[in-house]
Fold:
Amino acid sequence: MKNIFVIFKREYLTRVKNKTFILMTFLAPLLMVGFYAATIYIATETGDDNRSKTVYLTDYNPTLMLSNNPPANYVFLPAPSNEDSAIADVKSGVVFGWLKVEDRDVRVIDSATYYTAETPSLVEMEGLKSWIEGKANKHQFAKLGLRESQIDSAQSSCDIVTKEVSNSGDVQESSSALKSGIGFALAFMIYIFIFVYGSMVMRSAMEEKTNRIVEVIVSSVKPFDLMMGKILGVAAVGLTQFVAWIVLAVGLVFGISALFLNSGNGMSTQEAVQKGIEARTGMATVGMDGGAVAGESGSGVARDLAAEFTEPLSNLPYFEIIAVFLLFFVGGYLLYSSFFAAIGSAVNQESDVQQFMMPVTLPLVFGFVIAQTVALKAPHGAMAKLFSMIPLTSPIVMVVRAPFGVPFGELALSFGLLVLMFVLMVWLSSRIYRIGILSYGKKPTWKDLWKWLR
Amino acid sequence: MSTVIEAINVCKTFGEQRVSKNISLAVREGSIYGLLGPNGAGKTTLIRMLSTITQPDSGEIRFRGDDLKDVHAHQMGYMPEERGLYKKMTVAEQLLFFAELRGLSNRDAKAAVKHWLQRLDMMDWARKKVEEISKGMAQKVQFVSCVLHNPKLLILDEPFSGFDPVNADLIKDLILELKRGGTSVIFSTHRMDNVESLCDHLAIIHKGEKVLDGSVSEIRRNHFTGMYDVGYHEEVVWDLGEAAPLSMEKNSDGKVVYRFQTSEVFTPEHLLSAAMLKGKLVHYTEHIPSIHEIFVDTVSKGGAPIAL
Structure:
C-alpha cells in the first residue's frame, strides 16, 4: 500500500508541477471559450453564402409570379429564349445560375431545374425549394379566395412546455433540449478525458520501459502496485484539472456577467449566441418570403430563450447529474486506463501502439456514437438502456441519460457492473503488465499478449 | 559465517528454454560474490530471481534464513544491466523517489540523499534534471539510487558495462567501502578485469548451469596444473627433448619467460636444475591460472561441471 502511494505521489507531482500542465490548466478554458466564440463568429459572419446572385428565371406558370419578390440576395432576369445561350451564360459566369420551372400544375412541382456552374449548397437548395413552395401555397390559398392578409393572420404557431411529474408529485418545468445539451456535453467530456488521461498512463508505462527504469522499480514494487499507483496518480491529475477548471469557469462566468451587466452590454453576446443558433439551423437568410431579417427580432428571441431555459435550468437534478458524472468518469477512466497501461507495457516504441489501440478505442467511439444517436433520441429506450448497462459503453451512455432522470436501481446496477468489469480488467491488465515491462526486443503480437495472460 | 542469501536447486524455464538448471549458491554475509558467465548464460535470470523480480519455477531462495519475500526487497539494492533514470526529474527528486520505494521514510530518505550527494561531491547537481547532466554523472546517480537505503545485499548486474573507466574505478571503491560497512555484494560480469581484485567468492554460470564455484584463491589453486615459468634477461637455447617449453614470452622489462609443463617424470626440481644451467635465472614460479584463463577454459570445454 505504501508503495502504491510512493508511485502515486511521483506520477502526480511530476505532472502537476510540469509547466505545460499549469499553462494548459489556465489556457484550456480560454481556448475553449475562444473556440466557441470563433465558431459562432464564423457561422454568423462568414459561414453563409451572402453573395448577391443574378439568376435567369424561366417560368412556365405565370400565375405563380415567381419573378416578384425574389429571395434575399437573388436578382432574377428573364432567361433568353435560346436554351443554349442561357447555358453558355451560366458557364461563362455572366449569370450565377438558371432556374427553370416547367410545371403548370402547382400542386406538385417536380419539373424545376437549377443550372449552375458550381454545385449549390444544401442550404441554398432548401431555401429555393421552400421559397417556391411558399409561392405555390399562397397561390393555392388565393385560388380558394383568401387574401394575403387573411393567409398571414391564419398562420398559427405552437410551443409546448414540458412539465415533469416526480415521484413525490411535484410538477416542474423541464426542457428536453437543455437536458440533451448537458448530457451530450458531459458524455463528450468523458470521451475526451478517457482518451487524454488513458494515453497519459500508456505513455508513462512506455517511458519507464524504454528508459529502462522499470526494472529497478519492480525490484522493490510489485508490478500491480506500480500499475495501480500510476493509474490513480494520473486520475488525480485529471481530477485536479477538473476542479481547477470548475473554479476558473465559475470565476469567469461571474466575472464576465458582472462586467457586462454593469456596462449594459450584455445583450450583444446574447445576440451573437442567438445569431449562431439561427445560422446553424440554416434558414436564416433564405427565408420563406425572402424577407425575414435575422437580427431584427434577435435580441427579443434571445430574451425569450433565456426565459425559456431559466426555470428548467433551476429544476435540473444537479446532484444526481454531478454524482453520475463523477462516478462514471472515474469508473470508465479506471477501466480504460488499465487497458492503456497494459498496452504501454507491452510495446517497445510509440509506433507499435497502433495495432493494440483499435480494440480499446472501438468500444469508446461506439459508445460515443450511441450517445449521440440513440441515447439522445430516446433516453429511456431499450437500446439506450442496454448500452448504459454494458461496462465498456456505460460511462458515456449513462451520463447522457442522467439529466433525463435514471431510476436508482438502473444506476446502481450499471455502476456495479462497471466496477466488476474494472476489477477484472485491472487484474487481466496487470498480468500483461507484469511480463510486458520486462520483455524487450521484438514487437509483441496479440499471441504474445495472450500467452502473458495465462 | 552466516549467509545473506542462498539459492537451493533453483530452476526457471521460459517456454521451451531452461534458463536456470538446478542452481544452488550461497553468499556469505559481508562478502563480494562474482557471477561469471558468457552472454546469455542465465546470469540476469538468476539475478532477477534473487532480487524478487521473478520467482523460480522450482527450488528455494532464502534471505538471511527466511524464505525470500517481497518485503526483503527493502534490504536489497539492485542495479540492472539495462538501466535508466527519469529524464524529466531532478537528481534529488529521483533519488528521493528510489529511497522511498525502498521503504525509507520521507525524512530518512532526504537525509540519505543529502549524505550521498555530499559524499560524491554532487550537491551542485541536485536540482538539475537528469537530461541536463552528463552521462558520467547520470551513472553515478544510477549507482547511488540503489545504495541510498544502506542495503544488506547489493545486487549488481554487469555493473561495469557502460561505465567510463573513471566511474568504474569509483564504483569499485564504493563497492569495497560498502563491503567494509557490512553490505554483501553480488555482481555479474562477463569481463574478468575486476573479478580478481574484487571478489571473495565466485561462480561460473554456463548454459543455465553452475559449472564452477569457490573462493577465488581456492579456484585458482585447484586449477594449478603443474605449469612453471622460468625467466632470464636474454633468450636461451633449450635442448630438453620432450620437455620443451610450452611458450616463450618477452616482458616489457626485457625479461624472457618460458613456460613448462611439469609432471611426475619431469618434476619441478628437474626443471629448476636444468634451468639453472641455461644462464642467469632471474624468475622461477608456479603458473597459477588467472580467473580469465579458467573462465575461458571452462566455457570452451562446453560447461561440463567441474568438481572441486
Q: What stands out?
A: The two ends of chain A are 26 Å apart (CA to CA).
